[in-house]
Amino acid sequence: MNRKIKVILLGAGNRADIYASICFERPELLEVVGIVDPDAVRRELMRKKYSVPSENCFDDVSELVKREKFADAVINGTMDHLHVETSIPVLEKGYDLLLEKPFAVNEAEMNTLVEVARKYGSKVVIGHVLRYTDFYRSIKDRVLAGEIGKIISIETCEHVNYHHMAVSYVRGKWRSEKICFAPMLLAKSCHDIDIMLWMMRETQPVAVASFGSDFQFGAQRKPEGAGERCMVDCPYVDECIFSAKANYLAAPRWKHYVWKSLEGDENLTDEKKARSLMTDNPYGKCVWGFERDGNVDHQTVIINFANGATGTFSMIGGSAKSERNIHIVGTNGEIKGTFEDSRYIVRKMVPSSKSGYEETVYDLNEGGDKIGAMGGHGGGDKKLILDFIDYLNGKELSVSCATLEDSVISHRAVFKAEEARKSESIVKIST
């Protein structure tokens, strides 16, 4: 039987909260016993939510590690550039770790974290939640079973819709490497590169090329006459697709980002929200008024593998609908599907048939689990934390589990892809 795992939330934000919330559904498996966050409001909200004693709440990881170890593991949901510097002290203290992706923002700190984890023999799992979804896991199982033969080519893409692009990667904290220290390919799409390399696990990436730019944003593309704030001085407020009025008031999207400055207000009215967007709230500013620091809104990555296979990934920010697609072509067949539909097709080569192939449709919605109702990331968030609990209880690693060592492969590929894009060259990937 599983023992109850006690965890400390390091960074009391959305991601750590999502993982930890399994304790309300399965209290026999997980208990939150500590909170670390410099934001006093956020820290108190999480303390109350998880009934954590005040003496187990800290504003900095340095205060946490002064205490004797009082939990099994830490869930680290801090900002990307803080992952390594906050993880090292807890690993040194003897905690195991669930670390949100990307786990590092450059190769040097990636290597440092790996060395520390090896030194202390820590169990470290990276939050590559897409591996745990029914969609990608089912496809992985068919690849492992050899249903389409040896993979020749794998194509993946992620379409980031226009309002997600604006809230996170233009107005938000991932808009610039100066702020989050991570390019968009790393911050948004290391999930997708990881999926590609997970499917290609029998070989290794050896070289990469990449192209991308900022096609839509920046002050030079601001419409003539546009104002500084959507709801204050902009004549396009009722027609612009990026309007704060339309995206955050009329259609209340992304509330955990947009209303962070009003967090803790128990009487959050539309008037207060409007006033916030009209004054100091960054999400009320014109989408063309932010420094982008050379970050991209679209990018394509081409990977060559040691066995001669190839892979491509494209991230396009600004689509109408968010969508992830995958197409794997093997020596005996192919698999093609769309994650949001939770549906894929397997085509087998049959020379005697009229079309030359036979296909089978696998609709994962038929069991009643519509992907939007399965929780975060198509159910991947919940399955990941349950797998982490099993891992700490000594059970065998699942096919989906992304250990630190495993995740190094995809992170290194992303770092080299950015090097290739910026240098306009083909870059070797060392193993």
Write the layout of secondary structure elements.
Blueprint: E1 5-10, H1 14-20, H2 22-25, E2 30-36, H3 40-50, E3 57-58, H4 61-64, E4 73-76, H5 83-92, E5 96-99, H6 107-120, E6 124-126, H7 134-144, E7 151-161, H8 162-169, H9 177-180, H10 184-199, E8 205-213, H11 230-233, H12 244-250, H13 255-258, H14 270-278, E9 298-305, E10 310-319, E11 323-330, E12 333-338, E13 343-349, E14 357-363, H15 380-392, H16 404-423, E15 427-428
Parallel strand pairs: 1-2, 1-4, 2-3, 4-5, 5-6, 7-10
Antiparallel strand pairs: 7-11, 8-9, 8-15, 9-10, 11-12, 12-13, 13-14
Explained architecture:
This protein has 431 residues and is of the alpha/beta class. The protein folds into 3 domains: 5-122, 3-Layer(aba) Sandwich (Rossmann fold), CATH 3.40.50; 130-214 and 295-375 and 401-428, 2-Layer Sandwich (Dihydrodipicolinate Reductase, domain 2), CATH 3.30.360.10; 219-284, no CATH class. Helices cover 34% and strands 22% of the residues. It contains 16 helices and 15 strands. It has helices at 14-20, 22-25, 40-50, 61-64, 83-92, 107-120, 134-144, 162-169, 177-180, 184-199, 230-233, 244-250, 255-258, 270-278, 380-392, 404-423; strands spanning 5-10, 30-36, 57-58, 73-76, 96-99, 124-126, 151-161, 205-213, 298-305, 310-319, 323-330, 333-338, 343-349, 357-363, 427-428. It has a 9-stranded mixed sheet. The chain has a 6-stranded parallel sheet with strand order 3-2-1-4-5-6, with helices on both faces. Helix 5 packs parallel to helix 6 and helix 10 (184-199) packs across helix 16 (404-423). The longest helix has 20 residues, at 404-423. The protein is globular and about 70 Å long.
